[in-house]
Each structure stands twice: as structure tokens, then as C-alpha cells.
Design a protein that fits this description.
eight-stranded mixed β-sheet; alpha/beta; 11 helices; TIM Barrel; two-stranded antiparallel sheet; 12 strands; about 30% helix; Alpha-Beta Plaits
Amino acid sequence: MKTPLITEIQRFSLQDGPGIRTTIFVKGCPLHCPWCHNPETQDPRKEFYYDQARCVNCGRCAAVCPSGASTLIENEEGRRVLNLDRSKCVRCMRCVAVCLTDARATVGQEMSIEEILREALSDKLFFKNSGGGVTISGGDPLLYPEFTHELARRLKAEDVHVAIETSCFPKQWITVEPLLEVVDLFIVDLKSLDRKKHQEVIGWSLEPILTNLELLFKSKANVRIHIPVVPDFNDSERDFEDYIGYLRNHADHLDGVDILNYHVYGEGKYTLLGRGESYLYEGVEENPPEKILPLVKGLKQAGIRSVTVGGLVGIGTEGCNRNRLTLAF
């Protein structure tokens, strides 16, 4: 069983499914969304954050670096400063271990399922009182189907509601199907219904995603759709019409739809990861609320039971289909 690195276990989450939840973020995703606000979960390998503002150029990292990725050089003023060449990094993380100012931090921790369960189940009382549970997110947990199945099975054995957040990218249904017995809610990101745009921008075919999604509906799985609304990608009138038309056909099978307006909260992470120059959405502003109003109205008119803006599903105590916090328009 391939075990992923874990970037974070976030407790008291309210936006990754119903109720109060603990969200487990696995590291690794085959899609390449250029606006991704969790870029630290894209690469399945260990990485490190480097905060130049905290660095005092002491040279401790350079002294232990085996590959020459970290070196001390003399700047134009004659001062010794750190030079970081990530292309030479072998990901040994020795530099992180010796940094005294917390200028570096490892991204991606090795954890056993037992360690993950111990952390996730520490808030079990809150799950029961709020109708919450545990969400396995990422990255994409379907990149590690055996691990995800085993973790979900162990959580179900503890009588915990289990959700997974996924793009449903696998090219074979056999990867997804075993999870039906251990997952209570599939939260599926639907980034675009334009096949050409999906392939060119996201870097993955839309076909397996829609096939898996429709097989989830056919299997009577509980499904919520996440729609990230991104400026100049999927926020046109045509895009909204496509979403409304497609989801109208599946309204009876949907637990709900969460509209997630693009935000800039993850922008700083690209710089910390050394990818600042590759981030294409620098300076792009969030859409005003009125921009997404036609999509909200259209989905509600299409018969979707629960439509939220921001993913705050709500708190209840009656299993999966709880009272929803919705925006009424």
C-alpha cells in the first residue's frame, strides 16, 4: 500500500463537508490547476518552505547541504548572503533541521495510519455533537486509493462520518468503486465542463471525471459538487449555463453544490515554495459577489437542494442529510 505524505491535519474545519470536521490533507495531485490555493499538496515528494524575511544568512544550511543547493555568496555590498538553487535540491531536509530562525519548514510529513487516526479521532465528541466527521482531502486522495480505503475503513469502524474531496480523475472506475462501502460523502471538484479548456489548462481529460461522477450517481452515492469560480477561466455566462444544464440533469442525486469563489489566500505559498514566478494569478482580483449570483440562482432554480457560497454546509445531528446553511436568492 502506497502511503502518502501528509501536509496538514486541520481540526475544527467547517468548509470540507457537514458539521465540525477534521480534514486530512494528503500530498500529491495529478491535476495542475494554475490557481491552486494549496500548491504544497501538488508534488507528492517532500518540499520545504523558505521565508527569506526570517533568514539571517548564518550559513548553517549551506554547511550541511550535500548538493550545493544552499550556498553563501558575496553580494554587491560585500556582505555574505544565502543563495538558494532549488534545482539542485535532493530533498534531504538537512537544511530545515539546522535552521535556527524557522526560515525553513518541511512540507510533507511521514505518518502511519495509526498516527493519523490518533489525531483525527481526538475530536470525535465534536463530530457527534455537530453531525461532522473526517474529510480526506489533498492533493487528491484517489492518487492513493488503497491508503484512502484503509483509512476510511478504520474511521468507519469508529462510527465516524467519512468524506473525501476529489476531482474523480482516475481513468478506471475500479479505482473508485471500492470506496463506496466506506465513504459517506464524495465531494467532487468540477472545474470546467469545457473539454478543450479542461485538458489545456488543468492538464487532464474531462472524460474520466464525468464518467466516474455519473457512476457515483448511478451507485446512489452521496455526492456534493464543488465549483471553483475562477476569473477568466470558468466565470462566463456560457460556463454558468453549462454547469446549470449539466447539474439540472442530476439534481435528484445531489447532496448539494458549493460555489467556491477564487481567492488569493494561497499566493504567498508559491513564493515560500520557490515557485513565485510560475504563479499565473498574481494580482488577479476575486470576483465580486454579484458576479456569481446568476450561477447561484440558476442552480437553485434547477432544483439543487442545497447551494452554498463558500462551502459552509451547516451543522446538524441527523446523519448525512443535515440542515444546510444556504444563501437564499
